[in-house]
Design a protein that fits this description.
The protein is mainly alpha-helical and 268 residues long. It has one domain. A hairpin with a 2-residue loop joins strand 2 and strand 3. Helix 2 packs across helix 8, helix 3 crosses helix 6 and helix 9 packs parallel to helix 11. The radius of gyration is 18 Å and the shape is globular. 34% of the residues are buried.
């Protein structure tokens, strides 16, 4: 039987950081969103928009796709730096500029492919969670989680659209996935195995953890993060052992979060 500690630990660490940073970030982001929250209709539309975006990515030219992602990432860096630097635009302009320059000049190097792309992917996973997660309530999170998991199952296991979109964007060497070697190392047909997890999956885990923190407190939220990482570990071991290519990350994550949270809700 094969198993891997690297990706479950990465999921645990990034989710935990997102959860603890949320309280401070949320107060800052109220300025951006004017304390607006998603309704259930917004949650439904958000999932629908994500499904359309994933489907459309397959048909977008690579240069246009690269420009969209670089602009989106740069704006995310600018907004957070602007808010946390007391709204000094000249300070906020530095991180996005550094990101663009490093991508332009280093994306063909091992430094980018092995290290920087994963560091940026982890940072963007946290920033996306903090940015979008502040719009959710407990109710809209439940609706969103169910719909997103269902969509992920369809796009990965039924249509394969998610896999096609990920394969296309990976060629651009953009930080849309965290890709890490397995620990212990696993070799298939003379090739060392690396595991990948998309930013959307990290956002999903972070959102669930943040909502548990708000509703049930810090200790239970940490326990739920452990449960999500443990569930991911079990599913990943199954995938590695039977050499399966792709599986919905949201299903792997929610399988750890849901039983624990349902038990807590029933107990209350």
């Amino acid at each position: 039987m094969y198993f891997d500690f690297t990706m479950p630990l990465a999921l645990f660490a990034i989710t935990l950081v997102s959860m603890f940073l949320n309280e401070k970030a949320e107060s800052k982001l109220k300025f951006v969103f004017e304390e607006r929250k998603f309704t259930w209709k917004d949650a439904v539309m958000f999932v629908a928009a994500m499904a359309v975006m994933v489907s459309v990515i397959v048909f977008i030219p690579q240069m246009a796709l690269m420009a969209i992602f670089l602009f989106s990432y740069s704006m995310l860096l600018f907004i957070f730096t602007y808010l946390f630097s007391n709204k000094r635009w000249y300070v906020a302009a530095v991180p996005p500029a550094m990101f663009i320059l490093m991508y332009a000049f280093l994306n063909a190097t091992a430094l980018w492919s092995d290290y920087l792309i994963n560091i940026y992917a982890g940072v963007f996973a946290i920033l996306i969670t903090l940015y979008i997660g502040s719009l959710f309530t407990w109710k809209t999170t439940i609706i969103f989680a169910v719909l997103l998991t269902g969509m992920d199952i369809i796009l990965v296991l039924v249509t394969g659209t998610m896999v096609s979109a990920a394969t296309k964007t990976m060629g651009l060497k953009l930080p849309i996935l965290v890709t890490l070697p397995t620990l212990p190392a696993i070799e298939w047909n003379g090739r060392m195995i690396h595991m990948s997890l998309g930013l959307g999956d990290f956002f999903f885990a972070g959102l669930l953890a943040i909502q548990n923190f708000k509703k049930f407190g810090k200790k239970f939220a940490i326990l739920s993060v452990i449960a999500m990482a443990a569930s991911f570990f079990i599913f990943e071991a199954f995938l590695l052992t039977y050499q399966l290519a792709a599986f919905p990350g949201t299903l792997m994550i929610i399988s750890g979060w849901l039983p624990l949270t349902l038990f807590k809700m029933l107990k209350h």
